[in-house]
Design goal:
The complex is a heterodimer of chains A (179) and B (423).
Chain A (H helix, E strand, L loop, with lengths): L24 H21 L4 E3 H6 L4 E2 L4 E2 L2 H13 L3 E3 L6 E4 L4 H14 L6 E3 H6 L13 H13 L3 E4 L7 E4 L1
Antiparallel strand pairs in A: 1-5, 2-3, 4-5, 6-8, 7-8
Helix pairs in contact in A: 1-3, 4-6
Chain B lengths: L1 H34 L9 E2 L9 E12 L7 E9 L2 E6 L6 E5 L3 E7 L8 E7 L17 E6 L4 H14 L1 H4 L19 H50 L6 H13 L15 H22 L3 E3 H12 L6 H9 L8 E5 L5 E5 L4 H15 L2 E2 H8 L3 H13 L3 E6 L2 E6 L5
Helix pairs in contact in B: 1-4, 6-7, 6-8, 9-11, 10-11
Classes of the chains: A alpha+beta (179), B alpha+beta (423).
């Protein structure tokens, strides 16, 4: 979670009531909206693709040391439920301890990857998955270091649109061919 | 507070009076026993009340007490009661004429069965030499034995229990029942050891019981008197009203002030409105309005129901209202066109509030307060408005409900901020 440049916290982060889930329904909606935006922005800024709930609860995201306020475990769960409802996160296990954060939705990733492949003339050329996320050609792309599960989602998405062909999945040389 | 004080005062008085009576009785007992000193036996003593823990082991009727070999006795027929400490014999013809033979004087005993010639089964008891200073029927005797003759049987059981009681020597552990028997129990033994503690507990228990009984006597009398007092005050106020002309204005005023100092001069009571509850509650509602309007107006325009209950009963002094009646009366406020009304907060808290203090205006007022302080707790609002914390909290919650403020629930407590989420 190395921070490249200082993350700009929203004003709500310095507003103590932000760390108490509000009782009044209208207020609560606005609050959760703000939390959702904060979680996504924070993940995007720090290039976080997945988080552990226990880890998240203690991270600075839900803890404001300066105000001496933290969102309670129940509060975190409420926020995560809201995010899940909006399809911005997805739990990876049945125990709901870990979740993917889609600060870009898989189809958005898919478009970006396809765009990159078109621009760099990789169409009809088999590529390994490793090359896409960790290769030298993608160091400047936002999907560099993208988690495998999310990459797979994006590629499956492309395959459904008949713009890519997955090869050897589960084998040694997993690859994809953009068409 | 004052009620409690007077309560304990009365019970103390009662206890003191009882003490005096007991002492008087004890003295008269002693005098009686001196008057009876014309009979034979010297180990037997006149009866004095034993300790409260003395337990009856066995009782036999138609028992005579004979000294030595003598065939004549003054104690022909009576009831012998056996306890762990002594035998108490009570004359059948005069139950107040009672003798005591303490077990500590017994050296040995034997049982003689009923024969053809004797009048009944006998228990012969060999006794020690008398202790000096004992108060008994006679001061000297040539015999060392006493016969207990059981004319109607029962000697077997009595003998067995008597022997057992003497063998156990309980009087050495606990105090002697008959103070004048000169038993081995000395006065410092009375209050030591487990038996001493037990005895003291039993005494305290007895005393408490008496005090409570006495106190409740007083209470019921007080209640009766209170009823009369109300009746008197009512009749006086009626008289004052009807004879306005005859009594001078000054006197009337003075009289009224006396009555007022007792509380409401003419309280609305249920008995005057038999069978018409709603009318009764409406009159009560009127009374509540009169008593509380000024107070509520000056103190934040709101008053929680428990406070209403206390204030109205404080004002009445007597003929107190039940909580249910007060609540029903508050419900009737809206029917009598009173400036007050009963309001229920969403949390269930009931208040009597000014009709003019509608929810919108209080909510705006609350927001203003919170904005001024930037953040506020229920305590601060309560202090600022002179209302109770519960009411302040209700107001804050109402303002929160309408989205004007929002909460911050942390270890510092529940604070409220102006709602910036909805800006």
């Amino acid at each position: 979670m190395a921070t490249t440049s200082a993350f700009k916290w929203p004003w709500q982060y310095d507003f103590p009531p932000f760390f108490t889930i509000q009782k009044s329904l209208n207020t609560k909606d606005k609050q959760l909206e703000a939390w959702a935006r904060l979680v996504i922005d924070y993940a995007q800024h720090n290039k976080i693709y997945s988080l552990d709930i226990a880890e998240a609860t203690t991270s600075e995201l839900f803890n404001n040391q300066k105000l001496n306020r933290r969102l309670s475990t129940d509060g975190v769960n409420t926020v995560l439920q809201y995010l899940e409802q909006k399809k911005l996160i997805e739990f990876t296990d049945n125990g709901r301890t870990r979740f993917h954060i889609f600060w870009r939705r898989p189809d958005v990733w898919a478009n970006m990857i396809y765009q990159w492949a078109v621009e760099n003339a990789f169409l009809n050329t088999p590529l390994t998955l490793y090359e896409i996320t960790h290769g030298d050609d993608t160091t400047n792309e936002s999907f560099h270091n993208l988690e495998r599960e999310i990459l797979m989602k994006a590629l499956t998405c492309l395959e459904d649109q008949r713009r890519a062909q997955l090869m050897n999945i589960g084998g040694d040389n997993e690859g994809v061919k953009f068409v | 507070m004052t009620e409690e004080a007077s309560f304990s005062f009365w019970s103390h008085c009662a206890a003191a009076v009882k003490c005096v009576i007991f002492q008087y009785l004890a003295i008269s007992f002693d005098i009686d026993s001196y008057l009876f000193q014309k009979t034979q036996m010297n180990r037997l003593t006149w009866y004095t009340p034993g300790e409260s823990t003395e337990e009856l082991l066995c009782q036999a009727g138609h028992v005579g007490i004979y000294e030595g070999d003598l065939k004549q006795t003054q104690f022909e027929q009576g009831t012998a009661s056996l306890t762990m400490q002594r035998i108490i014999w009570a004359d059948s013809s005069d139950p107040d004429r009672r003798l005591v033979l303490h077990h500590s004087l017994v050296i040995s005993m034997e049982k003689h069965h009923k024969s053809m010639f004797s009048k009944g089964g006998k228990v012969v008891v060999r006794l020690e030499k008398p202790k000096p200073g004992s108060v008994g029927p006679v001061n000297s005797s040539q015999y060392d034995t006493i016969r207990l003759v059981f004319r109607h049987g029962g000697e077997d059981d009595f003998f067995k229990k008597y022997e057992d009681a003497v063998r156990r020597k309980t009087w050495q552990r606990s105090s002697s029942g008959s103070s004048s028997s000169g038993s081995r129990a000395s006065s410092n033994l009375r209050s030591v050891g487990i038996s001493g503690i037990e005895r003291r507990l039993a005494e305290n228990h007895q005393k408490t019981h008496e005090t409570i009984t006495q106190a409740f006597d007083d209470m019921s009398k007080l209640m009766e008197t209170a009823r009369e007092m109300v009746a008197i005050s009512k009749s006086i106020s009626e008289k004052v009203r009807s004879r306005k002309g005859e009594i001078s204005e000054d006197e009337t005023v003075q009289f009224k002030s006396y009555l007022l100092s007792l509380g409401v001069s003419d309280p609305v009571t249920k008995s005057t409105f038999v069978g018409s509850d709603s009318e009764y509650f409406q009159s009560l509602a009127k009374e509540i309005t009169d008593v509380l309007y000024q107070h509520i107006k000056e103190n934040g325009g709101m008053c929680a129901l428990p406070e209403v209950y206390c204030r109205i009963n404080r004002a009445r002094g007597m003929e107190l209202l039940s909580p249910e009646d007060v609540m029903n009366a508050c419900g009737a406020l809206s029917r009598i066109n009173s400036p007050l009304e009963l309001h229920r907060f969403p949390s269930g808290v009931l208040v009597v509030q000014l009709k003019s203090a509608s929810m919108e205006s209080t909510v705006a007022q609350t927001l203003e307060f919170v904005s001024k302080l930037e953040r506020a707790s229920a305590n601060e609002l309560a202090e600022s408005l002179g209302i109770t914390v519960i009411l302040a909290r209700e107001r804050l919650l109402a303002a929160e409900e309408s989205g004007l403020i929002c909460r911050d629930d942390s270890i510092e407590g529940l604070l409220f901020y102006p709602n910036r989420f909805l800006d």
